[in-house]
Amino acid sequence: MARVVVDVMLKPEILDPQGAAVLAALPRLGVAGVTGVRQGKRFELDVEGEPDLATVQDLADRLLANPVIEDYTVRVES
Amino acid sequence: MVTFPGSLDDRDAQRAVRLAGGDPVALWHGDADLAGVDAVVLPGGFSYGDHLRAGAIARFSPVVGAVVAAARSGMPVLGICNGFQVLCEAHLLPGALTRNAGMHFICRDQWLRVENTTSSWTSAFEVGASVIIPVKHGEGRYVASTETLAELEGEGRVAFRYLGGGAGGEQGDDARRPANPNGSLDDIAGIVSADGKVVGLMPHPEHAVESLTGPSEDGLGLFVSALQSLGVAA
Question: Is B91 an annotated catalytic residue?
Answer without folding.
Answer: no
